Amino acid sequence: MRAYLVVDHGSRRERSNRRLSEVADLLRERVEDPVEFAHMELAPPSIADGFRACVERGASEVVVLPYFLGPGRHANEDVPRLVEEAAAAHPGVRYKVGPALGPHPLLADLLLIRAGLPEK
Amino acid sequence: MRAYLVVDHGSRRERSNRRLSEVADLLRERVEDPVEFAHMELAPPSIADGFRACVERGASEVVVLPYFLGPGRHANEDVPRLVEEAAAAHPGVRYKVGPALGPHPLLADLLLIRAGLPEK
Fold first, then answer.
1. What is the pLDDT of residues A21-56, one digit of tens each?
2. B47 burial type by CB count under 10 A (0-12 exposed, 13-18 middle, 19+ buried)
3. DSSP code at position A90
4. Where are the beta strands (DSSP E) in A79-119?
5. Chain B closest CA to A12's CA: distance in Å?
């Protein structure tokens, strides 16, 4: 069974961290498999916590979704490294880590939506 | 005439900054009005540079599109303040600043697309 783990940077501000929980809820509306969330740093649940939660829900494969706008060091190096470390505690559980969100045409659409502008 | 100014955080890495230029190109495919881009900090063009470029292209209204994932301090406070300061040099030019991108259902769609997963 597959589970999804959406990962953001993490913040010391609880309000910022709550937004990842909202994103997880949006994902739950879209996929039938379990969805967990984790913060890369600064706040629990950690990536190790989130990975373990996926395994405890029965996952044999964890698909990690980095909630980062750009493919910088965090999305490309830090998150994959932390996932690899987390996975080491769960031999036999496969995993993959997706890329960052942007740039992507949907983000240009969303910029215009956010500005209250219909797409032309 | 309206112009769009898409603004990201800015980076010391040229590769990161180039991605905003790609986002500006995606916007140019979507709107007929001029599109400029600017970095909040760390690299030119600054928000003042970008605002001036919009005015030089004939804009009487500048619509600022923050390319930030979360509605944190940068998108909510720093960018609007820098836009206000930039606009002060161009009396008579109206402007507005959109909100951050997330959370939004399109971002959940994009997370799944990025993981190579069809939306269910």
1. 999 999 999 999 999 999 999 999 999 999 999 999
2. buried
3. S
4. 94-97
5. 11
Residue carrying structure tokens 């970095």: B39
Scanning A51-110 for CB atoms below 8 A from B yields: 63, 65, 67-72, 96, 98-110
pTM of the predicted model as reported, rounded to 2 decimal places: 0.93
Which residue, among B109, B114, B119, B120, would best test binding to A if mutated, counting the most A CBs under 10 Å from its CB?
Answer: B114
CB B53 within 8 A of CB B37: no
Distance CA A52, CA A54 (A): 5
Chain-chain contact of B101 with A69 (C-beta, under 8 angstroms): yes
**A78 contacts A48 by C-beta, under 8 angstroms:** no
Q: How far is CA A88 from CA A83, A84, A95, B13, B120, in A?
A: 9, 6, 11, 32, 30
Q: Based on the number of CB atoms within 10 Å of its own CB, is B23 exposed (0-12), middle (13-18) or buried (19 or more)?
A: buried
Q: How far apart are the first and last CA of chain A?
A: 42
Rounded CA gap, B10 and A71, in Å?
Answer: 13
Are the CB atoms for A70 and B16 separated by under 8 Å? yes
